[in-house]
Amino acid sequence: MSGHSKWATIKHKKGAADKARGKLFAKLARQIEVAAKSGGDVDINPTLRAAVQKAKAGRMTNDAIDRAIKRGTGDDDGGTYESIMYEGYAPGGVALMIDVLTDNRNRTGAEIRNIFSKLGGSLAEPGAVGWQFHRRGVILTAEGVDEDTIMMAAIEAGADDVIAEAGAFRVMTEPSVVYDVKTAIDEAGIEVLSADSPMVADNLVPITDTSDARAILRVLEALEDNDDVQDVFSNFDMTDELMEAAAS
Asked: Which residue, 127, 109, 97, 48, is CA-closest to 200?
């Protein structure tokens, strides 16, 4: 299983805490605010539509979504955010793409640099890492799903591939249809753990050492705990058992 997919599943389990959910909602709201600056109508603003669909997939309430849209369109007070994609390396040479929305580039850059300084790895020049990634729609299901049911629901809705992973399934799509496919899977009665359009690596770096695995996950957790960091994408690959052990 790819590092991003397995780590997303673990984050879902660990994210059940109210504090983690509150932080997630704050990040989702910020994404909606930024998208809404180009227009508050989801029917004509595809970026906003994707942000709203992502928020609903994360179980954000309609009222909270509406408030975020109003802040973005200027109908309510909101900050001015800048979108930045930082690139870097975690311990073990693992490539990272760090998606940021910030109202203070200098502060955020210093905080990310400090995380690398304390936990290992380093920031990279723009383009040094990005060429290894491309954006894909990824849907992760719970375990115990009937293969024929998910295959039929996902493929008929426009999915490119359905991959069995450790008793669950990973559905791959084009980014533009990921939430349409998720809706079809929901309607088939299948539990979806996450649906998003991450940056997916073309080639993965195998990790087999427990200490390396722990070091990588420490960097990921520290980055994702930063309020300005919206997402972190990586190219590591490790077994389920190793990642579970390293994350415990």
From this structure: 97
Flag the least confident range among 11-15, 47-51, 151-155, 174-178. 11-15
Note whether 96 and 216 are within 8 A (CB): no
Q: What is the pLDDT of residues 36-69, one digit of tens each?
A: 888 889 888 888 888 888 888 878 889 889 988 9
pTM over 0.85: no
Alpha helices by DSSP H, the chain: 3-14, 18-36, 46-57, 62-73, 105-119, 147-156, 178-187, 210-224, 240-247
Distance CA 177, CA 87 (A): 27
Q: What kind and span of H or E run contains 141? A: strand 137-141
What pLDDT sits at residue 156? 95
- Cα 199 from Cα 122, distance rounded (Å): 19
Helix, strand, or coil (residue 241): helix
Among 217, 216, 210, 136, which residue's Cα sits nearest to residue 170?
Answer: 136
How many CA within 13 A on the CB side of residue 6?
22
Domains in the chain, start-ordered, CATH in brackets?
Answer: 3-73 (1.10.10.200), 82-131+204-247 (3.30.70.980), 137-197 (3.30.70.980)
Of 134, 135, 133, 137, which Cα lies nearest the Cα of 177? 137
